[in-house]
Write a structure and sequence with these properties.
16 strands, alpha/beta, globular, 16% strand, 4 domains, Heat Shock Protein 90, five-stranded parallel beta sheet, 517 residues, 17 helices
Length: 517
């Protein structure tokens, strides 16, 4: 609580009162010798959200202070200890009422924005889906007409070799088919690519609807959180994918839960946008955002970690307060300070919570706790959502371990689209990930690293995760070096030598994961 007084004598009297009132809300006394007028109050009120009271010279000055924005004001002449304690109680009460009113206004404004977004998304869906339906059907019709001809191309060649092309029309058709210089497999692959792109557009339009239904009265739906995270990343994570490597670290046996889909999507979006803004404020050779899912009998935890600047200890307790923001207008076009507050409110409304862990200068981790009790969907028919999205082939997960951050970023880029990639800068970080519940399908590990190197990590795998040993590929930039060659001999299989081609890397990892080409 802040109290503005008009002279040092009054400030000293307030300090004596504080000594006798026996604790409670701490008071910050600010002396304004020019008077606690409207200009001073406005300046202080703009500086933050704590309760603000004014002890003025006169009733007129007290009235001006309240009119300018103070929570309450009194006259110094009538102030004794009982009146002072009652005054502090009034300031605290009216500050709480002010914040509640601000929250209600913010919630109403946010609801109006969501309603407007719903209208826009509905219009976009209508305008895009109609022509998209035409294009999809035309592509399927053309493919249906062309595919038999392409599949019969080999038969035409065989007829030509036997001299069985009896008519000029058949010769002309053969020439026309070969004019493009494309094989039948290439043409069919192009049709497959076109169909995949159209399906992606269709899925994005469908995913946009998630953000149009975030209303307080939204009914619970069957939600599989890995799928919802993919949907949110597809719509809201485009900028994040450009500036950082996104790591998906999903534990096994995750349940399908009954949740307000749009509200949870709103929480995920807010946290990912915060991560993008944090990363934009920090210059590093490479940035990473890790999205992890862990589940026990009480809650499913969604953690989103970034490599931004972290949160200073002195403000970490305030970041969930409404309207509190650390975002600079130059870097991020400003921030309303409502995203984290609204996200925590959404989670608390369903019995969960939102917490933060941060080491200043090393990034932050936000953890959203979603309750499990009474929300698990067990019957098979309910596992389908209201609007099923065409599922992409399931990707294998690969954990890459190397102490060169730039090389880690390059590996992640090279493997993107083929695998879900987790990154660790040395063996101990990889061990911590596996112990915490990460379940990679394969591991790619450098031999020479600080602290826990390749041989030490291999011994840990043998003792603690022997099932991963046959799915681990070791690599080295110096396979002829003493450590690497001795390790390769003990390992009984060759090391992958740096540098390697992307094709070679993918082929090795496909064998390690057992994934088909």
């Amino acid at each position: 609580m802040r109290l503005v007084v008009h002279d040092g004598e009054t400030a000293e009297r307030v300090r004596r009162f504080d000594e006798h009132r026996g604790g409670g809300v701490p008071v910050d006394v600010i002396v304004s010798e020019n008077g606690a007028g409207a200009a001073v109050v406005r300046l202080l009120q703009a500086a933050g959200d704590p309760p603000l009271g004014v002890i003025a010279r006169s009733e007129a000055e007290a009235f001006a202070a309240v009119e300018a924005g103070a929570d309450d004001a009194c006259v110094a002449e009538d102030l004794d200890l009982p009146h002072y304690i009652a005054f502090l109680d009034r300031v605290d009460l009216r500050a709480r009422q002010r914040r509640e009113a601000e929250n209600r206004r913010a919630a109403a404004a946010h609801s109006e924005k969501l309603a407007a977004l719903g209208t826009v998304v509905a219009g976009v869906a209508h305008e895009v889906n109609n022509p998209l339906a035409i294009v999809i059907m035309l592509v399927e019709m053309i493919r249906g007409a062309v595919e038999p001809l392409l599949q019969g191309q080999n038969e035409v060649f065989r007829l030509a070799q036997r001299g069985s092309l009896a008519t000029a029309e058949e010769v002309q058709r053969l020439a026309a088919m070969m004019q493009t210089g494309s094989s039948s497999s290439e043409v069919l692959a192009s049709f497959a690519d076109a169909s995949g792109s159209l399906s992606t557009i269709q899925a994005i339009v469908r995913d946009l609807r998630i953000f149009a239904r975030a209303q307080d009265d939204e009914k619970d739906d069957a939600v599989f959180l890995p799928d919802l995270i993919d949907h949110v990343l597809r719509v809201a994570g485009a900028h994040l994918k450009v500036i950082a490597t996104i790591e998906r670290d999903f534990g096994g046996d995750l349940p399908i839960l009954r949740l307000p889909r749009s509200r949870i999507a709103q929480v995920l979006t807010n946290l990912l946008i915060n991560a993008a803004h944090a990363i934009a404020e920090t210059k590093r050779d490479t940035h990473r955002v890790r999205i992890s899912l862990r589940c026990d009998t009480e809650a499913l935890a969604i953690s989103i970690s970034d490599t931004g600047p972290g949160i200073p200890p002195e403000i970490i307790e305030r970041i969930f307060d409404p309207f509190f923001t650390t975002k600079s207008s130059e870097a991020t076009s400003g921030g309303t300070g409502l995203g984290l507050s609204i996200s925590r409110s959404i989670l608390q409304a369903i019995g969960g919570d939102l917490v933060v862990e941060s080491v200043h200068g090393q990034g932050a981790t936000f953890i959203a706790f979603v309750p499990v009790a009474g929300r698990v969907v067990t019957s098979e028919p309910q596992k389908r959502t209201r609007e099923p999205v065409p599922e992409a082939p399931k990707r294998a997960s690969v954990l890459v371990i190397d102490d060169d951050e730039t090389l880690l970023r390059t590996f992640a880029t090279a493997l993107r689209g083929r695998f879900h990639v987790l990154l660790a800068s040395e063996g101990q970080e990889a061990i911590d990930l596996i112990v915490s519940g990460s379940k990679p399908d394969a591991l790619l590990c450098d031999v020479s690293m600080p602290v826990v190197d390749g041989p030490h990590f291999y011994r840990w795998l043998l003792e603690n995760r022997p099932s991963l040993v046959d799915h681990t590929v070791f690599m080295s930039a110096n396979v002829d070096g003493d450590v690497a060659s001795e390790f390769a001999t003990a390992l009984g299989k060759p090391l992958l030598e740096k540098p390697m081609s992307r094709e070679q890397l993918i082929a090795v990892l496909e064998r390690a994961t057992g994934a088909p080409r």
